[in-house]
Amino acid sequence: MDTTGYRKWSSGSLEVPKGRCGGWEHCRQRPLLLALAVLVTTVLWALILSILLSRASTERGALLGSQDQLRTNVSKQTAVIGTLEEDTRACNSCCLGTRAQLQTTHADILETEAKLIEQESALKELRERMTQGLAESSRDRENIRNELFQTLDAIRLHNGSCEECPRSWLPFEGSCYYFSVPRATWAVAQQHCAGAGAHLVIIRGQDEQNFLSGNTHGHEYWMGLRAVRQKGRIQSYKWIDGVPLSHSRWSLGEPNDAQGREDCVMLLPSGLWNDTPCDEKTFWICKKRLSC
Questions:
Q1: What CA–CA distance (Å, rounded) separates 118 from 247?
Q2: Over the stretch 165-221, which tens digit does the pLDDT of each residue have?
Q3: What angle is formed at CA 80 by the lines to CA 78 and CA 84, rounded to 5 degrees?
């Protein structure tokens, strides 16, 4: 037995043995410390919980605010979508109306185009008739003129007062024709004819054409026919006496005005006509009426 914890009776006081508490006062303070620790722990947990609850409340408020804002945005977007749908329906209705109007206009255009084509065809036919009529009138005029000249020539020949054609000139239906030996340009050839009281040949009909074709002897000859050019383009052809061209015997593909400078016309060995530059040198045919 441990006797060190007892004091002797001689000290005049009773010694209390010491246990694990180290004395009664020490044992009384220990529950207080425990209670204090529990209290502190409880306060700390309460504080932590309060902070967490406060933060959770704040976050919940923010979430609720965001939810309200999202609901507001959804409401606005729904309103915008509704407006867009109305605009789309209105646009579709407008487009349908415009499409119907365009279809009607297209039909009107097609109808107008058909009428224009019909009118153009009628005008073309009328123009062809007029051209044919003018050509026939011109041929009739030339035939009448030739018959008149032939009649006058016959009268003059019967009178016996008509001179014969000069030597080397060929007679035909009251006119004399000279087929040149040298070559010259169109202008020089016309000067030679004028010096002989004649002009480059003017062909009035098919009979005269046949007479000339039979005397070419494989040569080319200038004729008294030139182009009428305006703004660089040939508009028509006229004889040297100013009479427009009516009778013609163009060769295949002629006149073609090659390089834009073929203003004069020559008689080919075949009897057909060809346009060519006036500065080219070739033979020529002069023509003049018999003098009576």
A1: 32
A2: 999 999 999 999 999 999 999 999 999 999 999 999 999 999 999 999 999 999 999
A3: 115
CA pair distance 68, 118, nearest whole angstrom:
74
Domain of 257 in residue numbering reads as: 163-289
Kindly state whether residue 246 falls inside one of the protein's structural domains: yes
- The DSSP bridge pattern shows strands 273-276 and 264-267 to be antiparallel
269: in domain:
yes
Structurally, the chain folds into a number of domains equal to: 1
How many Cβ atoms sit within 10 Å of the Cβ of residue 221? 21
DSSP state, residue 248: -
Residue type, 110: L
b/e code 235-271 from CB counts within 10 Å (16+ = b) = eebebbeeeebbeeeeeeebbeeeeeebbbbbbbeee
AA identity, residue 149? F
Residue type for 279, please?
D
Q: What is the DSSP string of 95-115?
A: HHHHHHHHHHHHHHHHHHHHH
Reported pTM:
0.49
Residue 48 backbone phi and psi in degrees, to 5: -60, -45
Query: What CATH number is given to the structural domain containing 266?
Result: 3.10.100.10
Q: Which is higher by pLDDT, 274 or 37?
A: 274
Cα gap 129→67, rounded to integer Å: 90
Q: What Rg do the C-alpha atoms of the chain give, in angstroms?
A: 65
Q: Could you tell me which of 89, 284, 93 has the C-alpha nearest to residue 198?
A: 284
pLDDT of 6 > 50? The answer is: no
Residue with tokens 């009909």: 205
Residue 143's pLDDT is: 58
Sign of the CA dihedral running 134, 136, 142, 145: negative
Domain assignment present for residue 102? The answer is: no
Q: What is the mean pLDDT of residues 283-290?
A: 95
- Residue 119 within a domain: no
